[in-house]
Design goal:
Layout: H1 3-30, H2 37-45, H3 59-71, H4 75-100, H5 103-115, H6 117-122, H7 128-149, H8 152-166, H9 173-185, H10 196-218, H11 222-231, H12 240-254, H13 258-268, H14 273-280, H15 283-295, H16 306-321, H17 323-341, H18 343-350, H19 367-379, E1 385-388, H20 391-400, E2 408-410, H21 420-424, E3 435-439, H22 445-448, E4 451-465, E5 468-480
Parallel strand pairs: 1-2, 1-3
Antiparallel strand pairs: 3-5, 4-5
Helix pairs in contact: 1-4, 1-5, 2-3, 2-20, 4-5, 4-7, 4-16, 5-16, 7-8, 8-10, 9-14, 9-15, 12-15, 13-16, 16-17, 19-20
């Protein structure tokens, strides 16, 4: 292949990646995509930057705090954080692909990763996965340099990236399992396990992560308790149906055509150390999360880090050996992603009635309108604090009904920590002032007796679909006397 044709290929691949980025930015700006529960929840975290939070380490809150200081808390500004981070992840994968194969293979891997349906969906919603994917890719990139060049500063960079990954999401620890397996399976690199520079990198990762460990120690290791709770391993084990529910969607989330093409390529074609590296840092993730699904339950995105390495591997291999099929696979992925991203428009064109059963996005809808209904009542009461036992109501209504940052408090008489609101914003710890108690159902009189005065102010109602109505009971309460009073 001539240098001219190679440069032309690179230009087209760069244009493709930029086009994907611009399309997603256009969706954020004009697609009317509301914030989801986790986005409003993490955005609230960002109002009080800390070394840790109830359910997650702190990076997502730090990023949102920085973004809010620079660009405000608008929907587009909040969501752009994920788009930028996933765009950076694609660039890091290009760099890694270029280092392992060639510039064109690197760009093909970056485009493949960015076109995966799961990544396309996640890039429109700011979550802990966005920073995790970037740190995962950076750790791999620095690891390859450290492995090949041996300079101590590359091991330090690997450790910093890994530590930041652990500060993003604890799933980052699975990368250590993959890299250990890779080194043990590689006769040429097994010696690195006794290299003090590698262990220097491990120490650096631990030091970067240590502030969050210290925070957890000061808070009864609440983040790890939450991780154990959502794992549900203390309940009845072995759920083959959950395993099927987790594994089957992974196929279209990675690529209906791309997945079998990669499998065939690896089965029939020659494999080398580059393939082994990317497989080792990907397959164990799928296996561990699949085991979690079998034993209890697992969300579909929990294995998303596997797609960082597999996306690059699929793009690089297919670009080199089955270029036309690579293009078909990417176009199929983009078509599927387009259906998901433009679902409401396509459903309207097709005459499909949107309901809870026909709209996969129904959980995110109606909260903006409900917040708009509540806002006048909030504005009539300067300094009012919103009180609820519901994390969902505090997150959504705190964002849509109140000035930023919102004044909220958790009703938690049992003192069981269920969210960041319970951990830091228990009503009993809040200063006295006007209160609005909100609930999705009538509040028990025993609860209302905990206040000097309490009256039902209004019942707000927003109908999203014929089978989806948000109803909010709003109580004007004063003089909190304590739980059980």
């Amino acid at each position: 292949m001539t240098d001219t044709s190679s440069a032309r290929e690179v230009r087209w691949l760069v244009v493709a990646l930029v086009a994907l980025l611009l399309h997603r930015l256009w969706l954020l700006m004009f697609g009317d995509i509301p914030l989801d529960l986790e986005e409003t929840y993490y955005l609230f975290w960002s109002t009080a930057p800390d070394l840790g939070y109830y359910s997650k380490p702190p990076v997502v809150a730090w990023l949102l705090a920085a973004q809010s200081a620079l660009f405000g808390t608008g929907v587009v500004a909040v969501k752009t954080v994920s788009l930028v981070l996933h765009g950076l992840t694609a660039l890091v994968l290009y760099s890694l692909g270029r280092r392992l194969w060639s510039p064109a293979a690197g760009w093909a891997g970056a485009v493949t990763f960015f076109s995966l349906p799961l990544i396309g969906g996640l890039s429109l919603f700011t979550s802990t996965d966005a920073a995790l994917h970037l740190c995962w890719a950076l750790t791999l990139r620095f690891f390859v340099e450290a492995r090949d060049r041996g300079h101590w500063h590359w091991w330090v960079a690997t450790g910093i990236a890994a530590g930041l990954g652990l500060l993003s999401k604890y799933t980052m620890g699975l990368l250590a399992i993959g890299l250990l397996g890779y080194l043990l399976s590689s006769p040429a690199y097994r010696r690195l396990l006794t290299d003090p520079r590698l262990w220097l990198g491990v120490l650096v990762a631990a030091l970067v992560w240590s502030p969050n460990l210290w925070w957890n120690a000061q808070n009864h290791f609440i983040s790890f308790q939450h991780t154990a709770d959502i794992s549900q391993l203390d309940r009845a084990l072995f759920h083959p149906d959950h395993l099927v529910e987790f594994l089957l969607p992974q196929w279209p989330l990675f690529g209906i055509v791309l997945a079998p093409l990669l499998a065939v390529s690896l089965w029939r074609g020659a494999r080398d150390d580059r393939d082994r590296l990317l497989l080792w840092v990907s397959i164990p993730v799928l296996l561990v999360i699949a085991l979690q699904a079998l034993l209890a339950e697992a969300n579909l995105n929990w294995a998303s880090t596997a797609y960082v390495g597999l996306g690059l591997l699929a793009g690089a291999r297919l670009w080199q050996h089955q270029r036309r099929w690579w293009l078909v696979a990417v176009l199929v992925n983009l078509t599927l992603l387009g259906v998901v991203q433009h679902y409401h428009t396509l459903a309207q064109v097709a005459g499909v009635e949107l309901t809870r059963k026909t709209d996969p996005y129904f959980k995110r809808l109606g909260w903006r309108e409900l917040g708009a209904e509540l806002r006048p009542l909030v504005q009539e009461r300067p300094g009012v604090r919103l009180v609820s036992s519901s994390r969902r109501l505090l997150a959504y209504l705190g964002y849509y009904a109140m000035d930023w940052p919102p004044r909220v408090a958790s009703w938690n008489p049992g003192e069981h920590i269920r969210s960041q609101y319970d951990l830091r914003y228990n009503l009993k710890d809040m200063p006295a002032g006007p209160l609005l108690f909100v609930s999705e159902s009538p509040v028990d009189q025993g609860v209302l007796r905990s206040f000097s005065s309490a009256r039902l102010l209004v019942v707000l109602e927003v109908q999203v679909y014929r089978d989806l109505i948000h109803k909010l009971y709003v109580y004007d309460v004063t003089g909190f006397k304590g739980y059980g009073s």
